[in-house]
Backbone:
């Protein structure tokens, strides 16, 4: 089937391949470093392009595939990209984005017209000293994120709250949230302030070659 996205808008993934070849698997796993496939990155960028964003946020840039897809699709936009790991930043290709070497969850709450995001997936049992930060994000969002939630929930909640009214986000996260024990409150958040419009669900193995997880893309538009 022909792709609806022109090839010119599908990002090159040389930076991701180079980083994957040299990084220790344990380091990647600890930071949740799994990359968005380029065609999916282009489709996510296409969703947010619908609101003609001037400023786009990528809260967890990695080697930059989503940032580059957003810049290719929205060449007049400015992209602000956060990444906490200096090792991946050295290998990244940010395509001209404004890169912030910072922890996104501890950063400020500026508004954006759009967000493209594939956040780290880290189970609550592996999170250390995260309770206060989670509580602060939950308080700001008006949704108490439960202890059992995966780290990606914090990213979705904060990023959704940083969308201006009418702004759009495309978030790639595992599909497990639909049946997880924290699902109920998370669904209420998504259907309320989160602005969820559509969910695209992929079976295991369809998105990530190197991660045993189902995947879903949340397409949101802030009410
Ligand atoms: C799932 S990867 C996604 C990378 C890239 N956006 C993509 O789509 O291929 C998540 C990235 O977030 C980074 N990260 C983890 N925790 C972070 C934090 N608190 N703030 C900013 N970046 C973080 C990891 O180092 C990793 O590169």
Residues:
């Amino acid at each position: 089937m022909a792709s609806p996205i022109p090839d010119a808008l599908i990002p090159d993934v040389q930076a991701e391949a180079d980083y994957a070849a040299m990084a220790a698997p344990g380091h990647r796993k600890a930071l949740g470093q799994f990359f968005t496939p380029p065609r999916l990155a282009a489709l996510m960028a296409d969703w947010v392009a619908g609101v003609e964003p001037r400023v786009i946020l990528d809260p967890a840039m990695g080697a930059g595939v989503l940032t580059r897809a957003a810049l290719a699709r929205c060449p007049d936009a400015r992209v602000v990209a956060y990444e906490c790991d200096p090792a991946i930043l050295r290998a990244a290709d940010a395509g001209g984005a404004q890169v912030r070497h910072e922890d996104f969850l501890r950063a400020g709450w500026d508004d954006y017209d759009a967000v493209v995001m594939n956040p780290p997936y880290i189970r609550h049992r592996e999170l250390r000293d995260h309770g206060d930060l989670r509580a602060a994000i939950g308080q700001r969002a008006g949704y108490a994120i439960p202890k059992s939630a995966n780290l990606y929930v914090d990213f979705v909640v904060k990023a959704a709250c940083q969308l201006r009214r009418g702004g759009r986000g495309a978030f790639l996260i595992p599909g497990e949230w639909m049946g997880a024990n924290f699902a109920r409150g998370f669904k209420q958040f998504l259907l309320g302030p989160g602005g969820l419009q559509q969910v695209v669900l992929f079976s295991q193995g369809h998105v990530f070659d190197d991660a045993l997880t189902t995947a879903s893309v949340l397409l949101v538009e802030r009410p």
In short: The chain has a mean pLDDT of 94.
